[in-house]
Each structure stands twice: as structure tokens, then as C-alpha cells.
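Two proteins, back to back. First:
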Amino acid sequence: MKEQQQEQSASWNMGRLMELATGYWKSAVLSAGVELGVFDALAGDGRTLAKLAAQLKTAERHLAEVLDALVALELLEKEDTTYRLAATAAPLLSRKSHACVLDALRFNMDLYPLWGRIPEAVRQGGPVLPPGAHLGADPERTRRFALGMHSRALGLAPAVLPALDPGNATTLLDLAAGPGTFSRLLAEQHTHLHVTQFDLAPVLAVAEELTVGHPAADRITFQPGDYHTDELPAGCERVLLCGAIHQENERFAQELFTRVRTALAPDGRFWIVDMMLEADRSGPLFSNLFSINMMLTSPQGRVFTADRLQALLLAAGFATVERKQPPWSPYWVLEAS
């Protein structure tokens, strides 16, 4: 029975192939809704088509095509000519919600044009985007990147944070912190925890902005630096590296893990939170696709297998490595001690 089900799921037909070939149509409609401001406009009560078109300054008939497609995608609901956010989608698409991912979707729009250039990247053996565009070289893109990662992290936090238990530790280094979302939430949950967020100055500026008024703001400090060249803050009991190792090659990953091991306090623990692949690199699918995203945007980045990261951690001097796979999250967690 199981073999029959696998055979059926693996079978191809014209309908399935066309669904794959036109899959970007769905993401294009979602991106259009973000760019046009549809979800922001519908964050409160429902709106009629005429009111939405006037508010968004669009052609009414053309807006209706996009709105109806969003209804078909089950992101919106429709009654006569009135549209509203679908109940289960509203927390993800409303800025009034802590789980809002609109900034993550907006950053995806920066990546969207690059995916049509996969053959170019493969032929030239390098990215199709200037190196460092989202890490300070382009200030506006850097800001969109950091806010997008913050938005995405808020959505993933309920799945990932339970795998990051600091225990009695009082100090945490958030290495390559980006917006610092996970470490900021950990500091909020664990009131004995003091956090140092370490990253490039243009990225860290967004993290500082996001920390203003936060309940744990008085226990979070910021240290600008580049983990490629600068000395790492020493003596922290926990080190978090989230969403960064996929930007590096294996040689540097090995070097960085060794430096983290040296910088850790005795009996400290090192968390790597990232997309990872199975040993034969044939899944999970999201990790494969994300590795292509890195191919398009980074001269050396790719998604590592969990097995390879574990081997690099052991070679760096860690005694044990525990692997965790949070539910419904693209992120895996490795905890090394």
C-alpha cells in the first residue's frame, strides 16, 4: 500500500507539470498584493472594490483581477464586491499583529527578478547580484533585508524558540545578529539573560531601532563588527548563529566554529539555527531552493547538510552535537557543547 502511494505521488501528468511550470504566477499575485498595499488597506474592516481602487489609486477592473485571484488563493474573502482578509491569514498580513510577515514578503520582491536568471548564474559560476548588496553596500536594500528577516523570524519564533533553552546561562552572544529578533525574544522570556548582538554596523543599526522600547532593552548591548576579521566577544555562556552559516564556504565555517569554541565560556553551548539538507542533498525541498537563492546572491554561499555541519563542529573541538528539527519550520537547530 505504501509503495503504491509513493508511486502515485511521484507520477507526472500534464496538469501537475503545468502547475509546476506556472507556480511563480501565485507568488507574483501575492507580491502584487503586497506592493499595491492591498493587505495594509484591508487590515481593519472589509472594503468594497470601488473604495479599495480609490484608496490604492488603481484601475478598478484590473484591481478586481488581482483581488479575485487572492480570493482564489484563500488569502482574501469576498462577499458581493466587498473584500476582507481571510481569518487565518489576517495575523500574518496585518501590521497590527506581532506575527505579521509583510516585511519578509516585501524583501522577497527584491529576490523575485533574480530567479529568472538561474541559467546565467550557472553558466558564469557566480551570483547575479553585486556582493554585499544586502549587507551594507546598498543602504535601502540592507534595511529591507533586516526588516524582512525580522518579520520572518517573528513568524518562526513559536516553532524555533523552544529549541533554544538557555537554562541558567546569563550571557548570550548573538553572532551575525541581523535584526536580533530571536535573541531579543529570548531575553524577554528569560529575564536573567543579558544579550550582546554582534554584526556589521549598517545591519546592527536596524537591530538597535527594533530594540527601542522593548521590555528587555536594558539587557541588550550592541557591538559592531565583522566575524570574518574581528575578534569575537569572549566569555559568553551561549552563542547563537542564526541564518548566517549558509553565506559561508566550508573552510571559513570550520575556522569560525573553532573561534566560537575558543570564545565560549567553560561548559558553554553553541546554537546554529539555519536551513540544512539531508546527507544526499536531495531534500528538504525548501532547503534545496534556498541553496539556489544563495547561488544567485552570494559568491560562495550554499546550504550545508546537517551531517557536514556536525562534523565541522566536532573537528572544531566540540564534544557533542545535538540535532533538533522544530515543527513546521524550515530551520533546523544544532546545539554543540
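And the second protein:
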Amino acid sequence: MTSDIEEDAVTVPATTAPDGVVIVDKPPGMTSHDVTNRIRRALRAAFPAPRRRHGHKVGHTGTLDPGATGVLVVCLGRTTRLVPFLQAGRKTYEARMQLGRTTTTLDAEGDVTAEHDASHIDEQTVCEALKRFVGPIEQIPPMVSAVKVDGERLHARARRGEVIEREPRPVVIHDLVLEDFVAGAFPEVGFLVSCSAGTYVRTLADDVGAVLGVGGHLVALRRLASGGARISQAVPLSTLEAAIADGDLERLLMRPAAAMAQADYPTVVIDDTAVTQLSYGRPIAATGHDGPVAAVDAAGRLIAVVSDQDGRARPRLVLAPA
């Protein structure tokens, strides 16, 4: 899954739109790009600008296919700079696959390429197959993915009918649990999967079908969690658009520091001197933590993301208050 940060270069809001993170329950039939475009249009209408400069930045932390629904973490304004950190967390999906049929896209949107009677497959056989995929594995990105090869996204090549060689990529399947099984000539399998960022569930469905010897494809996908973001926190896109139009966006926003904390990054509170140092890109005293750390001021505002190196905490990203 890829991140998507885009900038509308047409206008700058006369009244600054707030920075922050909102968790959207992506509807079916839309790309993640479509979602960010709709949010950008709503912001442009609510915060019009009299002059051309920079526009409303809107980004998301991991693409969902058009047919998929669920958690889409959307960053607004300066918070889009946190996308590389927020997209790294574990993802959890509720998925459904059909055995016995393979398709050109590895999901229900594609044309059927082969059919095999899978009536001999039972629940226990499926459970044993799923176990084989738990842990570190390698996946070949599907041709319909947003992965770039030689500067062009694979799905653009797929639309032209091209199929090119793709390098396998390492991912981790943390948990893979059978939810339900419906027997038949083309059995349906419901499962929950918790996996690392970059995992393709449609590829997983295709690979499971191959292991079973009958083929398979994904028929439904819903993301339940992305990092610390949960489906229980998600709001419909229409609700977000209405909140923007009504001047009620703040109610739905998570501040940058809270978003980093929810993504399980450690937080350190720094004094005014350290705030000034980081604002100029200078290191501060070591935090004592491994990996990225959110450095916040006494008011709880995220000043920078830092990492300890050579006995000092050095800024990886500075997000000082405007």
C-alpha cells in the first residue's frame, strides 16, 4: 500500500484550515485519491482564498482499493508531513475470498481466468493452508497496484494490457484467522488478517488459493485498523464534508501529537530552549528511546520528530507551531 500526499496549487485559504488527522470510513466505489480530492474541495469551499499561492494539503497513510472500505487515515495541512511515520503501523482487515476461481485482478473486479471445482475443500483444509502464511513471507505486488516500476504505477500499465516482472517484497502476516467457511463448488472463506504495512490482501487470497490447488480471489475487504487508528473512530466521508462546511471540523480532528501517540511513538515534553533548538534544526538532549520520538512543548503541540544518534536527539522532521 502506498501513501498519497497531494497539494492543490490553485488557492490558499484566507482563513487557515486547521492541521490534524481525521479517520475516514472510506466508502466503496471510490479510490483513496478520490477521497482526498473530495476533502480538498470541501476545504477550498470553506476556506476560500483571494490570491494564488499554496493550497490545502491533504494526504492519506495507505491506499485502499476502490472496492474496499474502512479505515483511511487522512492528514490535513502541515500534518501531511507525518505520513511516513503514521503509515508504518500494522494493518488489520476483515476479508472474504472465493475459492475455485482466479481473476485478472485477483479480486472480484477482474475477469475470471480459470475455474476449478473446489467442493472437496473443507474448513480444516483451509485452516491448515492459512497457517502456512503466518510470519515473514514474500509477496509479488499485483499488476493493479500503485507500486511504481520505472517511474510508472503498475495499474497504469495493467490498463494498457501489460504484464511485467515484479520483484517479490517482504511482508509480515502477524495473525490470520478463519472467521467462517461456506462449502460448495466455489467455497467462500471469511478471515481476519493482521499484517505489516505494504501487504496486499488480494495477493494473499490468490496465494492461499494456489496452495489449496484450486485458485481463489478476494471478494470483499474492510480495513478495521491502521496503526493505532480503529474503525470505531472513523467517520463517514459525508459527515466530514458536512463538518467542514458547517465550521465544525475541529471536533473531528486529532492533533498531530495525539496522532503520533496513538501510533505508539514515545512522547517527550521539552522546554522552551529545546523548542527553539529544534525549530532551527538543532539537536537536543537524548531522549533515551529507540526509534522516532515525538517531541512536544508544554502546551502539547508537536514540535518535531526526533531520533537519538551519537548521544543527542536529532530532528528527523520539524513541525514547529506556525
